[in-house]
Amino acid sequence: MRLSILDQSPISSNQTANDALIESMKLAQAGEALGYTRYWIAEHHGLPGLACSAPEVMLSYIGANTNRIRIGSGAVLLPHYRPYKVAEVFNMLATLFPYRIDIGIGRAPGGSAEVTNALSDNFLQKVWELPALVKELFHFLEDDFSADHEYSKISASPIPENSPVPWLLGTSEKSALLAARNGMPYTFGHFMSDDDGIAIIQAYRDAFRPRKEAQAPQVIVTVSAICGETTEQAEEIAESFLIWSLQGEGHQGVPSIKEAKQYKLTEKEKDSLNKMRQNMIIGNPHEVKRKLMELQTNYQADEIMINTITYSPKDRIQSYRLIAKEIFSKENL
């Protein structure tokens, strides 16, 4: 099984944004050492609990401090930007870090309505235009506009030896079909969706149109998971993330375990917490492995991408370490 990391660069209640970003870099280094396939970092805006508003900046930092692991955006929010600029940025990264760069593309606003207005004009219109934006981005990445096109005489320089790989990220059949019609690999956000993900992935496979000869559909499924030495330890560590999510992920500071235990839940919040737990994987290494294997089998996924948020950076890296040890070491027996 291939495993990867999705990092939202959360800020814990005892951290600064600088601390959180440095811990993100350390997580990428740990993922590389543990054998994870790729590390993607998310884009969020105006949220005090999340540190990364510019994945392309962090990817330069992370690329310079790692050697092999694939790195990318999870996702760059394309409706905010012109495809030419996105192609330039990721071609630059692919030139600096050859054969390692992914462009995860999303269409969410990534912040409040006010932040969205501050970032871009006509965001909703650009969301409707996403299919055209994706096609334009492909043309810039492949440097293949037709001779009569208005952009035929320009390139998104520098042109790397190996182009960055575009992925489409989503949680709906609409995004899955957009990926399929463009011959793109697709990442389904299982941890963000209440929809029938298995049916969505099947629709993607059925509609897939290869851009190149012998190209096949490729699927990553992203899940929220926390692993501990014991089930009880994992549940305790997960309490911080669950309370923070209940408050809103943009809330200032992932609370400590002690702070989370002191939070007084209403009956409505208890129901919300139970629903969140059902969409997560929490447990000891054996339990987490079993649930990840079930997820991979159900989705027929090529890869599982894990999002782990904890109060302590040590607990987060330990969670990824326990999962890697349980899966990778036993696969090699």
TrEMBL record:
Phylogenetic lineage: Bacteria, Bacillati, Bacillota, Bacilli, Bacillales
GO cellular component, one term: cytosol
Domain Luciferase-like: 1-296
Family in the record: To bacterial alkanal monooxygenase alpha and beta chains.
InterPro entries on file: Bact_Lucif_Oxidored, CmoO-like, Luciferase-like_dom, Luciferase-like_sf
Record GO terms (molecular function): oxidoreductase activity, acting on paired donors, with incorporation or reduction of molecular oxygen
Gene3D superfamilies reported in the protein's UniProt record: Luciferase-like domain
Taxonomy, superkingdom: Bacteria
Name of the protein: LLM class flavin-dependent oxidoreductase
Pfam families per UniProt: Bac_luciferase
Signal peptide annotation: none
SUPFAM superfamilies: Bacterial luciferase-like (SSF51679)
